């Protein structure tokens, strides 16, 4: 259908999480607290890894990058959602909507690939410990981290290509608190069957491939640790539990949402909030509570900070 016959919509209207002002005031306070916690918690992990040379290993470099992705994943839509809680008009420009779609798929796609890279790192560490330093060199670790960002960007560009040139001429209400591609594409003034199928195949291919690689990696690891000592099994299981928990929290909502990609269910909003707010806040908790090295490094960082403050106060009193 010829786009020239239509005037493109200038903005979209977001339905938000609730129409109740009482709930919106509550959500404003709640999500402000959660967002600040996400940013501070994940940045603390990044700062801890950077400040402690003992954590300059592939596993912790990838963990710090996961924290960076989590901050970005929480930031692409959450501040806008918090702002909208205090405003009756919840609108977003066409360009802003496309930007949200692009950023969501960059960060979610990048995190998907990074989780696979982290599983590969644990596979090499547990199944091939004697060759770990050779296989997981700094160069390869850097390549895996950069590769996760590159694949995320390429995946996002392919998703955006399905929607950016579609004609949007009338309906502009998105039943969510952000521009969800599966909901926005239905507002186009043309038949979107082919773009919907291609979009689903693109996302499905990446999601299913990542999930299968994770499943294979963790299955091999679990089989391998059965032949190790009880101490080795305990340590490996502790690390694996953290990784598998994060993978489940990340892929669980995605699988449900994309099982019915072009249908709008009330639970979809809950799952979207879980993916973009609660998963980024749970990741640092899961990794730090089960990781002695990170907790020890955080304690050193705190001690160093307190000592520097005391020294600065002493110098001022002289």
UniProtKB/TrEMBL annotation:
<dbReference type="Pfam" id="PF13853">
    <property type="entry name" value="7tm_4"/>
</dbReference>
<comment type="similarity">
    <text>Belongs to the G-protein coupled receptor 1 family.</text>
</comment>
<comment type="function">
    <text>Putative odorant or sperm cell receptor.</text>
</comment>
<feature type="transmembrane region" description="Helical">
    <location>
        <begin position="205"/>
        <end position="225"/>
    </location>
</feature>
<dbReference type="GO" id="GO:0005886">
    <property type="term" value="C:plasma membrane"/>
</dbReference>
<keyword id="KW-0472">Membrane</keyword>
<feature type="transmembrane region" description="Helical">
    <location>
        <begin position="25"/>
        <end position="47"/>
    </location>
</feature>
<keyword id="KW-0297">G-protein coupled receptor</keyword>
<dbReference type="GO" id="GO:0004984">
    <property type="term" value="F:olfactory receptor activity"/>
</dbReference>
<feature type="transmembrane region" description="Helical">
    <location>
        <begin position="59"/>
        <end position="78"/>
    </location>
</feature>
<keyword id="KW-1003">Cell membrane</keyword>
<keyword id="KW-0807">Transducer</keyword>
<dbReference type="InterPro" id="IPR000276">
    <property type="entry name" value="GPCR_Rhodpsn"/>
</dbReference>
<keyword id="KW-0716">Sensory transduction</keyword>
<feature type="transmembrane region" description="Helical">
    <location>
        <begin position="141"/>
        <end position="164"/>
    </location>
</feature>
<keyword id="KW-0675">Receptor</keyword>
<keyword id="KW-0812">Transmembrane</keyword>
<feature type="transmembrane region" description="Helical">
    <location>
        <begin position="270"/>
        <end position="289"/>
    </location>
</feature>
<dbReference type="InterPro" id="IPR050427">
    <property type="entry name" value="Olfactory_Receptors"/>
</dbReference>
<feature type="transmembrane region" description="Helical">
    <location>
        <begin position="237"/>
        <end position="258"/>
    </location>
</feature>
<keyword id="KW-0552">Olfaction</keyword>
<dbReference type="InterPro" id="IPR000725">
    <property type="entry name" value="Olfact_rcpt"/>
</dbReference>
<dbReference type="GO" id="GO:0004930">
    <property type="term" value="F:G protein-coupled receptor activity"/>
</dbReference>
<protein>
    <recommendedName>
        <fullName>Olfactory receptor</fullName>
    </recommendedName>
</protein>
<feature type="domain" description="G-protein coupled receptors family 1 profile">
    <location>
        <begin position="41"/>
        <end position="287"/>
    </location>
</feature>
<dbReference type="InterPro" id="IPR017452">
    <property type="entry name" value="GPCR_Rhodpsn_7TM"/>
</dbReference>
<keyword id="KW-1133">Transmembrane helix</keyword>
<keyword id="KW-1015">Disulfide bond</keyword>
<feature type="transmembrane region" description="Helical">
    <location>
        <begin position="98"/>
        <end position="120"/>
    </location>
</feature>
């Amino acid at each position: 259908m010829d786009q020239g016959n239509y005037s493109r919509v200038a903005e979209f209207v977001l339905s938000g999480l609730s129409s109740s002002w009482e709930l919106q005031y509550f959500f404003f306070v709640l999500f402000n607290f959660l967002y600040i916690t996400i940013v501070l918690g994940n940045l603390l992990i990044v700062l801890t890894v950077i400040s402690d040379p003992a954590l300059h290993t592939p596993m912790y470099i990838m963990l710090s990058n996961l924290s960076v992705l989590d901050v970005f994943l929480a930031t692409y839509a959450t501040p806008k959602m918090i702002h909208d809680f205090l405003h009756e008009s919840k609108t977003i420009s066409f360009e802003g909507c496309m930007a949200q779609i692009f950023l969501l798929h960059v960060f979610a796609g990048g995190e998907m690939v990074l989780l696979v890279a982290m599983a590969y790192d644990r596979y090499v560490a547990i199944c091939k410990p004697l060759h770990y330093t050779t296989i997981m060199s700094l160069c390869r670790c850097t390549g895996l981290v950069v590769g996760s960002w590159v694949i995320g960007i390429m995946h996002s560009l392919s998703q955006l290509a399905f929607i950016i040139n579609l004609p949007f001429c009338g309906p502009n209400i998105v039943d969510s608190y952000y521009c969800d591609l599966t909901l926005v594409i239905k507002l186009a003034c043309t038949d979107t069957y082919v773009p919907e199928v291609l979009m689903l195949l693109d996302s499905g291919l990446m999601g299913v491939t990542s999930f299968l690689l994770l499943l294979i990696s963790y299955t091999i690891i679990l089989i391998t640790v059965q032949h190790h000592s009880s101490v080795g099994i305990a340590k490996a299981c502790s690390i694996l539990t953290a990784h598998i928990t994060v993978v489940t929290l990340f892929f669980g909502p995605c699988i449900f949402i994309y099982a019915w990609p072009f249908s709008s269910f009330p639970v979809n909003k809950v799952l979207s909030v879980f993916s973009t707010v609660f998963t980024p806040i749970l990741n640092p908790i899961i990794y730090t509570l089960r990781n002695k090295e990170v907790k020890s490094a955080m304690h050193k960082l705190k001690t160093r900070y307190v000592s520097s403050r005391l020294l600065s106060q002493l110098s001022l009193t002289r």
